[in-house]
Specification:
Shape: globular
Number of strands: 14
CATH architecture of the largest domain: 3-Layer(aba) Sandwich
Structural class: alpha/beta
Low-confidence stretches: none
Strand content: 25-35%
Number of domains: 2
Strand order of the largest sheet: 5-4-3-8-11-13-14
Largest sheet: 7 strands, parallel
Helix content: 25-40%
Radius of gyration: 19 Å
Number of helices: 9
Order of helices and strands: HHEEHHEHEHEEEHEEEHEEEHE
Distance between the termini: 31 Å
CATH topology of the largest domain: Rossmann fold
Mean pLDDT: 87
Oligomer: single chain
Length: 232
C-alpha cells in the first residue's frame, strides 16, 4: 500500500478505497500487503474440488436457504454444491415439491418421504451431475414455482449472476422465468466476479444468501440495489 501511495502521490486511505472498488469490479483480489489479478472466475473447478471448497460456509448457507422454504411450496434447486446443502436441510420437511436438474440433489432427497422430487430431463454434462438441453427446457415450460435457489460461480452487484459455460445458461434462464422469487446462494469467494455469459441480471434477484465472511464492501452494492442480503 505504501509503495502505491508513493507512486501515485495519494494517501494510503485513498489507495485502499480505490483497490476496494477495483476488487468489487472483479479485476483483482487483495492479499496481505498487496494485490493479485483475479482470474479464478474464468475457470470452473471440478465438482470433486468444489464439494470440498468452503464446506462450513456452504452448510450455513444451505440451512438459511432451507429455512426460507414454506410447507406446501414448489421450489427449484439449481445444480451445484451449495444447493446440495439446501437439499440436505430439507430432508425432514414435508409437503414440498423440489424440481432440480442435478442428480446429486435428487439423490440427497431420495428417502425424504415428505418431499416430491421432480428431476427435469436433459443431457448429462461432462464431469458433472447437471442435466441440460432441450429436454430440460421443455419440462420447465410446464412448471410454475414460488422460489428458485440459484447457485452461481460469479455474482456481481452490477452485472448479476454470470457463468463461464454457455451450455448451462439457457436452462438457468428458463428456471428464472417460471419462478416468483429468485434467491442467489453463494459463498463469499464468488462475490465481485464476472464471467462471459449473463444468467440473471441484478434487477431480477430478490435475495442473496452468503456467509459472514463477506465484507460490507462486497455487499453494499447489492443492498443499494434493493436486494435482501442474508449473512450466516
Amino acid at each position: 500500500m505504501t509503495d502505491l501511495a508513493s507512486e501515485f502521490q495519494v494517501s494510503e486511505a485513498t489507495i485502499r478505497r480505490d483497490l476496494s472498488e477495483v476488487e468489487q469490479e472483479g479485476y483483482l483480489k487483495r492479499t496481505h500487503g498487496g494485490v493479485i489479478l483475479d482470474t479464478s472466475a474464468n475457470h470452473e473447478p471440478e465438482v470433486s474440488q468444489r464439494l470440498n471448497d468452503q464446506k462450513e460456509q456452504k452448510a450455513r448457507i444451505g440451512k438459511a436457504a432451507a429455512d426460507l422454504v414454506q410447507d406446501g411450496e414448489h421450489i427449484i434447486l439449481d445444480s451445484g454444491t451449495t444447493t446440495l446443502y439446501i437439499a440436505k436441510n430439507l430432508v425432514n420437511r414435508s409437503n414440498i415439491t423440489v424440481i432440480t436438474n442435478d442428480i446429486n440433489v435428487a439423490a440427497e432427497l431420495r428417502e425424504a418421504k415428505g418431499i416430491t422430487v421432480i428431476v427435469i430431463g436433459g443431457i448429462l454434462a461432462p464431469n458433472s451431475y447437471m442435466l441440460n438441453g432441450m429436454f430440460a427446457l421443455n419440462t420447465l415450460k410446464t412448471l410454475h414455482v414460488q422460489k428458485y435457489f440459484l447457485g452461481t460461480s460469479s455474482i456481481h452487484a452490477k452485472y448479476g449472476s454470470t457463468n463461464t459455460n454457455a451450455d448451462v445458461v439457457e436452462v438457468k434462464k428458463a428456471m428464472i422465468e417460471v419462478a416468483q422469487e429468485i434467491i442467489i446462494t453463494a459463498d463469499d469467494t464468488k462475490i465481485g466476479k464476472v464471467t462471459l455469459h449473463e444468467v440473471a441480471p441484478i434487477t431480477s434477484i430478490h435475495k442473496f444468501i452468503t456467509g459472514i465472511e463477506a465484507s460490507e464492501v462486497q455487499l453494499k452494492g447489492f443492498r443499494d440495489m434493493g436486494i435482501t442480503v442474508i449473512q450466516v
